[in-house]
């Protein structure tokens, strides 16, 4: 159903996952730069030629861009839009959207005022926008930028029916666990490479007097990310692809195995800051900041989430690479998981200005601006690795680029939004209920399957 799925033999799929996991592990233990030189294109008299991408003059044109981004993420993106304004003369307004963004866009379309471009966080949402005839295909200039700067895999997840609709401007490496370096040092804890070693590390931290894990259970997407990393590593990439497309049911034994493994953390109330009830009242930003405030006695020692957690680490006045360190999500099965996510720019009102902005967002120029500001990761392979502001983020970015097409996109983001992307419903709600009662594995599977069947229509 989704373009991210790959029909591979089990051996080939496992080899791909192993290669990607190896790239991640290597990149987080050995610093390496990637010095790419990009030449400037030459344009005509009505073209702006600063940077690597040629843009038209758009004096007097106005655009709206909608996204659910808030805080520093929103402010940093506005700096990218300001550069587009400077180069083209267009005026761009950022429109704050509510989650799920498809519902927000539906009300805008019904009112006859859709934004020109929307940043969609799920391939499933792109497909919905195409099916509803809201989305417009990318033009030749944007496609040329994509082909120049993106691996085939990142191009493909922005396609519907083999037509390009999305520019994946922002990516995420969702296979990371951040930890409070001082707590680990005091406890004598070491970075684990396997799930069993993670449990040992958690017990070591607990014995030192600090709760091992912070979980942002108030937002269901963080819980789906936990499940996906365990499932990908334990069940393997073929099963992962099948479950993502609902070709196998959520009552499959492989899901039972993953939930059983997950319960080894969620089921130990002393391992989760605030217990289940506390976690369910903790949003994602708080789950990060409480790991890095309180000196060497924070509310928790570790927090699982992607590279974008760096924004919140900084807000906690902790220094990435010194106070806050990171290790790859440990291997549960044969290989460590490599799960990615992202946000794609999709045109809703086709115009010269909208196509130009999509082209700009597909270029190294746009991504480099936000990369320098931190808390951001681009799948654009021609962004110089040195643009990222610290060695930790440089390593994370390099691992994403080095994995090429050998990654798995966030499973819940591939699902219909009613199942994989709606607060209080579907997978988000089922896993919140599971966090509250990790012993109810069979009931959780049945609820997941019923909601998935309704959302996928099968």
Automatic annotation (TrEMBL):
Recorded coiled-coil stretches: none
Concerning its family, UniProt says:
Belongs to the bacterial solute-binding protein 1 family.
InterPro entries assigned to the protein according to its UniProt record, in alphabetical order: Bact_solute-bd_prot1 (IPR050490), SBP (IPR006059)
Looking up PANTHER family in the UniProt record yields:
ARABINOSE-BINDING PROTEIN-RELATED, OSMOPROTECTIVE COMPOUNDS-BINDING PROTEIN GGTB
Q: Where is this region: Disordered?
A: 34-56
- Entry keyword set: Signal, Transport
Bias class Polar residues marks the residues at: 39-52
What is the protein name for this chain?
A: Sugar ABC transporter substrate-binding protein
**Gene3D superfamilies in UniProt:** Periplasmic binding protein-like II (3.40.190.10)
**Signal peptide feature range:** 1-32
Nucleus recorded as keyword: no
| Pfam families per the UniProt record, alphabetical | SBP_bac_1
Domain of life, source organism: Bacteria
């Amino acid at each position: 159903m989704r373009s991210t799925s790959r029909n591979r033999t089990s051996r080939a799929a496992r080899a791909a996952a192993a290669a990607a996991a190896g790239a991640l592990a290597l990149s987080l233990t050995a610093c390496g730069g990637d010095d790419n030189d990009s030449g400037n294109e030459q344009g005509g008299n009505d073209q702006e030629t600063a940077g690597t991408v040629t843009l038209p003059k758009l004096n007097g044109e106005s655009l709206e861009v909608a996204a659910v981004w808030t805080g520093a993420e929103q402010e940093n993106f506005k700096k990218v839009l300001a550069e587009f304004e400077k180069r083209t003369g267009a005026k761009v307004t950022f429109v704050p959207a509510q989650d799920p963004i498809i519902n927000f866009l539906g009300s805008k379309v019904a009112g006859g005022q859709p934004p020109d471009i929307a940043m969609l966080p799920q391939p499933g949402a792109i497909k919905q926008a195409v099916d509803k005839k809201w989305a417009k295909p990318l033009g030749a200039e944007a496609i040329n930028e994509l082909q120049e700067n993106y691996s085939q895999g990142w191009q493909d997840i922005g396609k519907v029916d083999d037509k390009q609709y999305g520019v994946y401007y922002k990516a995420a490496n969702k296979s990371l666990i951040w930890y409070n370096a001082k707590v680990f040092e005091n406890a004598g804890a070491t970075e684990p490479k396997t799930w069993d070693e993670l449990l040992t590390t958690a017990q070591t931290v607990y014995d030192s007097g600090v709760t091992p894990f912070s979980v942002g259970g108030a937002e269901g997407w963080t819980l789906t990310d936990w499940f996906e990393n365990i499932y990908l590593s334990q069940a393997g990439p073929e099963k992962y692809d099948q479950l993502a497309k609902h070709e196998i049911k959520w009552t499959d034994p492989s899901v039972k195995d993953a939930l059983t493994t997950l319960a080894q953390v969620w089921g130990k109330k002393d391992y989760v800051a605030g217990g289940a009830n506390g976690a369910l009242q903790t949003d994602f930003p708080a789950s990060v900041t409480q790991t890095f405030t309180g000196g060497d006695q924070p509310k928790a020692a570790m927090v699982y989430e992607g590279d974008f957690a760096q924004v919140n680490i900084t807000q906690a006045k902790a220094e990435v690479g010194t106070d806050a360190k990171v290790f790859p999500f440990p291997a549960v099965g044969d290989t460590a998981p490599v799960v990615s996510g992202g946000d794609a720019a999709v045109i809703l009102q086709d115009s010269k200005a909208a196509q130009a902005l999509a082209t700009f967002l597909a270029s190294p120029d746009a991504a480099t601006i936000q990369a320098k500001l931190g808390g951001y990761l681009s799948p654009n392979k021609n962004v110089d690795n040195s643009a990222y502001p610290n060695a930790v983020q440089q390593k994370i970015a390099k691992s994403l680029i080095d994995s090429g097409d050998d990654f798995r996109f966030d499973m819940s983001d591939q699902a219909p939004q009613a199942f994989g992307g709606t607060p209080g419903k579907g997978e988000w709600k089922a896993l919140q209920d599971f966090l509250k009662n990790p012993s109810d594995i069979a009931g959780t599977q049945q609820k997941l399957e019923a909601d998935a069947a309704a959302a996928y229509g099968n």
